Amino acid sequence: MVDLLNELWFLPRELVSDGYDAALARLAEVAPMTIHEVPSGTPVWTWKVPEKWSMDAAYLETLDGKRLLDAAEHPLHVVSYSLPFEGVVSRAELFQHLHTHPRLPDAVPFVFKYYQRDWGLCCSQELKDSLTDEQYRVVIQTRFEPGALKIGEIVISGEREECFVLAAHLCHPAQANDDLTGVLVGLDVARALLAGPKPRHTIRVLFFPETIGSVAYLSRQEDLIPHMRGGLFLEMLGNDAPLALQQSFQPHSQSDRALVSAFRGLAPDGYVGPYRTIIDNDERQFNAPGVRVPMLSMSRVVNPHLPESRFAPYPEYHSSHDTPAIVTQERLEAARDAALALVQAFDSNRYVVNQFKGEVFASGHGIWIDYRVNPEGHRNLFQIMERCDGERTVADIAMELELPYTAVFDIVSQFAEKALVTFSDRPQPTAPRRG
Ligand SMILES: [Zn+2]
Fold it and tell me: Does the global pTM surpass 0.85?
């Protein structure tokens, strides 16, 4: 993952651009992928697909020709989707178009004006503070032209059409952690799933430009939306912070229950938070009205309840300091393993239907756990057993008992081997109806 990160991070991956297309084409060499194209100007629900944007030159000079900053050296020096502009401007006018980072005085910020139509350059606060001339020369040669927004989709066919969606955004010029790390983790999860046994659900792994890409995908695949049963957005997964799981807009969904219970115990220092309390991203489009896919998100965003959260989502966010230097292969692998475990929990989660009545004669069925040796295991066994009633899923039981998903799954799998329970996609209450 780190090799691909080093290869792709510096590309100017704008929403619709040659840099973005090159990155997506490279990913398609690693895993079998369908690339959907949506032409510029296409209405997608209440949005419209933007034009392709290219930057030929962008720099700032003193009037005697000393170059102060140059986008040829770093793509962040020009505002993404900046209008072209050439001329001599006063320092006051320049400063209205020259952006700096709010927290990092030595970093160039990532600034975008996709829909505002303005020109702009970016530099460090330190450089800006050194600008004392009355006038400067600005050169911004950019082009807007018809192109196509591109979405990469890897499909891992399951036994059924009902699907789980993994997604990450591939845009952002010269940014490593946000969100190329999410893309690379998603790609690795896809490869692992393709190599493994066929899942029950179809798994769709999507890479697109932020926001407009999810809207474009969903609006062009409306027939699929009713089949989407859950999802996980992957973002910012390589930086030095614990894993964080953000719930969906429907926190009681089976998608939430399976992922939240599976997350328990995966990352000892990890934390879980409600929808929109950790980080906002493309999961919003999936959770939105008319779509309502319970999509959670996993990140390494700094815990908002800790003092370091003044650096939220992480210190180098949206700046020239977001480079492969803040990412490690080890953290990417831990994120990949966690994402895989969450997908597998979602995929195996079903209603547990008791084929027994009364409490099972555990020792007679070889499943008894000696309370003198393992009191907790003994208690869990019986607490899980009494919840196997056709009305609860594995995830429901795990949430009620505050146990990790796998702890419950392992026990009910043992019951299933002894034909004490069966699994069902729908509730099958076994209590007699009364009254
Ligand atoms: Zn971002």
Answer: yes
Domains 52-145 and 351-424 alike in fold: no
- 326-353 pLDDT per residue, tens: 999 999 999 999 999 999 999 999 999 9
Please check whether residue 351 is in contact with residue 390, taking contact to mean a CB–CB distance below 8 angstroms. Answer: yes
The CATH architecture of the domain made up of 351-424 is: Orthogonal Bundle (1.10)
CA of 253 to the centre of ligand 1 (A): 27
pLDDT in tens, 142-159: 999 999 999 999 999 999
Superfamily of domain covering 52-145: Domain of unknown function DUF2172 (3.50.30.90)
Measured in Å, residue 170 CA sits from the centre of ligand 1 at 10
* Residue 215 CB contacts under 8 Å (≥ 6 apart), including other chains: 44, 45, 47, 285
Ligand 1 midpoint to CA 404 (Å): 32
Residue 317 CA to ligand 1 center (angstroms) comes to 7
58: helix, coil or strand? strand
Q: Are 230 and 168 in contact (CB under 8 A)?
A: no
Centroid of ligand 1 to alpha carbon of 250 (angstroms): 24
Residue 177 one-letter amino acid: N
Fold category of 2-49+148-348 in CATH: Aminopeptidase (3.40.630)
Element (H, E) at 255: helix 254-263
Task: Tell me how far the alpha carbon of residue 179 lies from the centroid of ligand 1, in angstroms.
Answer: 7
Report how far ligand 1's centroid is from the alpha carbon of 260 (Å). Answer: 25
CA of 29 to the centre of ligand 1 (A): 25
* Distance of CA 325 from the midpoint of ligand 1 (Å): 18
Centre of ligand 1 to C-alpha 195, Å, is: 31
CA of 352 from ligand 1 middle (Å) equals 41
- Domain boundaries of the chain, sorted by first residue: 2-49+148-348, 52-145, 351-424
Which residues have C-beta within 8 Å of that of residue 68, sequence separation ≥ 6? Answer: 59, 60, 61, 62, 123, 127, 131, 136
Give the count of beta carbons closer than 10 Å to the beta carbon of residue 135. 12
The C-alpha atoms of residue 254 and residue 260 are separated, in whole angstroms, by 10
Helix (H, G, I), strand (E, B) or coil at 356: coil
Side-chain half-sphere exposure of 191, counting CA atoms within 13 A: 14
Query: Residue 408 and residue 406: Cα distance in Å, rounded?
Result: 5
